Amino acid sequence: MTNTHKTVHTLLIHILLISLFPLKITTSPKTEGYALVKWKNTLIPPLPPSLSSWSLNNLCTNWYSITCDNTTNTTVSDINLSGLNLIGTLSQLSFASLPNLTNLNLSGNNLGGSIPFTICTLSKLTFLDMDSNLFEGMLPYKLEKLKELQYLSLWSNNLNEIGNLKKMRILFFYQNQLSGFIPMEIENMKEIKELDLSRNQLCGPIPVEIGKLKEVTMLGLSQNQFFGPIPPEIGNIKKLRQLYLYQNQLSGLIPVEIGSLKDMV
Ligand SMILES: *[C@@H]1O[C@H](CO)[C@@H](O)[C@H](O)[C@H]1NC(C)=O
Ligand SMILES: *[C@@H]1O[C@H](CO)[C@@H](O)[C@H](O)[C@H]1NC(C)=O
Ligand SMILES: *[C@@H]1O[C@H](CO)[C@@H](O)[C@H](O)[C@H]1NC(C)=O
Ligand SMILES: *[C@@H]1O[C@H](CO)[C@@H](O)[C@H](O)[C@H]1NC(C)=O
Ligand SMILES: *[C@@H]1O[C@H](CO)[C@@H](O)[C@H](O)[C@H]1NC(C)=O
């Protein structure tokens, strides 16, 4: 065969193969287990002995830290790897292979790098806990597409941007690298109940828009570089119970509106 013929021939075989096996991700305990083992093998040893239970079989029966869904018991719903001192990144974790995951807890490890945008394929994710790690950079912008996500704990990392999180109810972002003015996206978080941005490098005045967060019960802005007066609009947040403003350069008096908040402790 000539070279051209060879190329055309190979191309045809490729097209044939692609049409026979459409690129569709199907789940089964096998593909989910495979994705997790593949990721485990990218972590820097020594790994905790408990993770030797991650073999390719028995995903829902005896894998350490893995819980399967409570109806069919065949697909992963919970992963709790908190406090294991795992070292590595998430770049090789195929989130698309874990479509039924609702709870992911990676808190208290030494995982770093960026938070991959593929995490946005976890459409059922409700609780995401990645605090006390070394994650850096910005949050994936499409995180707002995760309609079920209500709880996002990212305190003590090196993250520098929040992105758009309209549906969030609980957001722990203290002890990160946020800088500049308070992110304007905050104003869109209409359902937020607990928001902690303490211990970052935020500066500027506290924006009056903060008063639009009607559901907030806890607001942490301490240990930043905010300056100027405390906006009286904070008094509009009737459900506010805990407000942390210490260690800033705020000036002026505490607005009387804040004193009138009934539930303040
Ligand atoms: C899932 O199946 C395993 C093995 O049969 C069992 O140990 C476990 O308790 C089951 N979990 C649920 C939630 O039914
Ligand atoms: C099963 O899990 C779902 C979602 O986490 C929960 O709402 C439901 O109450 C659970 N059912 C049982 C029987 O535990
Ligand atoms: C997650 O794992 C940690 C450490 O093993 C344990 O203390 C904690 O209770 C677990 N949380 C859940 C919800 O199972
Ligand atoms: C898990 O996710 C797949 C793909 O979205 C879906 O077809 C399947 O019904 C889900 N299983 C359960 C038990 O929710
Ligand atoms: C994650 O695990 C830590 C440590 O066990 C625990 O304090 C935290 O509440 C867990 N997060 C969630 C969302 O369950």
UniProtKB/TrEMBL annotation:
Gene Ontology biological process: defense response
Any Pfam family hit: LRRNT_2
Source domain of life: Eukaryota
Domain Leucine-rich repeat-containing N-terminal plant-type stretches: 30-69
Keyword line: Cell membrane, Cell wall, Disulfide bond, Leucine-rich repeat, Membrane, Plant defense, Repeat, Secreted, Signal
Compartment list: Cell membrane; Membrane; Secreted, Cell wall
Bilayer disposition of the protein: Peripheral membrane protein
Gene3D superfamilies referenced in this protein's UniProt entry, alphabetically: Ribonuclease Inhibitor
InterPro entries in UniProt: Leu-rich_rpt, LRR_dom_sf, LRR_N_plant-typ
Primary residence: membrane
GO cellular component, one term: plasma membrane
Signal sequence coordinates: 1-27
Family, as annotated: Belongs to the polygalacturonase-inhibiting protein family.
Protein name, UniProt field: Leucine-rich repeat-containing N-terminal plant-type domain-containing protein
Species of the source: Lupinus angustifolius
